[in-house]
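Progress note, project year one: complex with calcium ion.
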Amino acid sequence: MTLKRSWVASANHADTPFPLNNLPYGVFSLGSGPCRLGVAIGDQILDVAKIADLLPVEPSLLEDARGWNAVMEQTPQVWAALRAALSNTLAEGADERAGALVPQAEAVMHMPFTVSEFTDFYAGQHHATNVGTMFRGAENALPPNWLHIPIGYNGRASSVVVSGTDVRRPWGQLKGPDDTAPRWAPSARFDIELEMGAIVGRASNTPLNVDQADANIFGYVLLNDWSARDIQAWEYQPLGPFQAKATATTISPWIVTKEALEPFRCASPMREKDLLPHLRDTGPMLYDIPLSVTLNGETIAKTNYREMYYSAAQQLAHHTTSGCPMRVGDLLGSGTISGPERENRGSFLELSWGGKEPLETASGPRSFVEDGDTVGLHGAAEGDGYLIGFGDCSGTVQPALKDPFST
Ligand code: CA
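Model obtained:
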């Protein structure tokens, strides 16, 4: 696949994240004006309601106050037909509907869809091995279930915010110097996790196999699972993370469709143990997407989505095995995506090895995130002369409020 040319000139550059090949879905406003559904093209946004006459869906779907949920609620055939019509409308040689374009520089981005429920997995082997080694020693790094199921926990849809939203350092009950006496204080080990989020586009209430699960995924976003390590260390046994992960989860503003990522499918890593038949790989279900983390604009880590041990399709398939109902707009976090080397680590916990080896950065040494830091996640699949980008996934840490319980 090579660059598809558009009548929007800025979409025809090899370095734009939003060529005609991409066409990701977002929600924008001009100033405090109403929210509109848009498609990124070059440095512009196509206001889709303004070209509703050219699109094969009910116009009301393009003015859904929830974002792109009403479009997702249609069938995969409609998803494909809409994408094809958008591609035709924006292709070089088509009638130029310049009046439907808005410069991205003038737009404010909002949540691209309403999150129904949020589940976060722990499915990156390098991350799980690093964290397990720190907490339990190298011999017990991976729990016994890890090579058999993508383990995860049910998170909070209410925590999910769009890129650019400030994140407030939380207060919490923190692990003290020993395991018996906690402290009440602002988190001093506030962290990030570089992840991808898969968005479920079809409801289900029966177990799905891996192929069915893959077919039900609508698209992907970048996802930062903000994590308070000192709250997590005290609370996580035996039921897993709770308040440590409830402050905020930032996603990128554009939903990149599964169809746009098709050319970048790649195989999962070698299986160390055979998976049960219903979770076995049936084809390439990961994606080759280079990813990076910036701290105040400086790149501090680089990794790739293909480093995952389990694909989003395997995660969704496992999620449904109990009969768990899945809803349109369910968001599945991949788990932190680290690679084999130190510079590939997707969290400060790993980059600083639990604070023992602070990272030297242009902003000073960092074990965890400091007040005022802006952390950005970035990702773009790299085609032959074109990119498939997600837009930045960033947030700035604001200092903790004064003690909410002090008198
Ligand atoms: Ca996570």
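Residues 9-110 form a domain with the SH3 type barrels. fold (CATH 2.30.30.230).
Residues 76-90 form the longest helix (15 residues).
No further modelling is planned for this target in the current period.
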